[in-house]
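User: I'm curious whether this sequence folds into something compact or stays loose and floppy. Could you predict its structure so I can see for myself?
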Amino acid sequence: MSTLKIGDKAPAISGQDQDGTNFSLGSLKGRKVVLYFYPKDDTPGCTAEACSLRDNYKELMNQGYTIVGVSPDNQKSHRKFADKHELPFPLIADTEKVIAREYGVWGLKKFMGREYEGIIRTTFLIDESGVIVDIISKVDTKNHAFQILNM
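Assistant: Here's the prediction. I'll summarize afterward.
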């Protein structure tokens, strides 16, 4: 669970997206941002989440949101995932888990009785001044866009 709270300044992050383009959260100042962390490209839950955002991309854009995904997968994996599902937003490669740790979403998880470290699926809504205005920790992958739009 993230130690960040609503009202906190969003940590400044930078990385490269699926195209190798440099990205920094600071470059989005003045825009609302959906910063979503997901465990792995092309897995069922992560695909459902990304496709929910893709399918409702225009509505999210109309509401003023810029969408950015982050996972520990590399650029090549992100490129395949984005191409396969026609994702119109950047996916940041966080292979060293620097961004995930900064946001407090890298931690201990349990699956089928096994404990391991990984991304704790979380979405941060960040306002135009870079402040976290909402945190979605119980992500409904199939309906994630609607969770955001109904905030």
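Summary: The two ends are 20 Å apart (CA to CA). Helices lie at 44-55, 57-62, 75-85, 98-102, 144-149.
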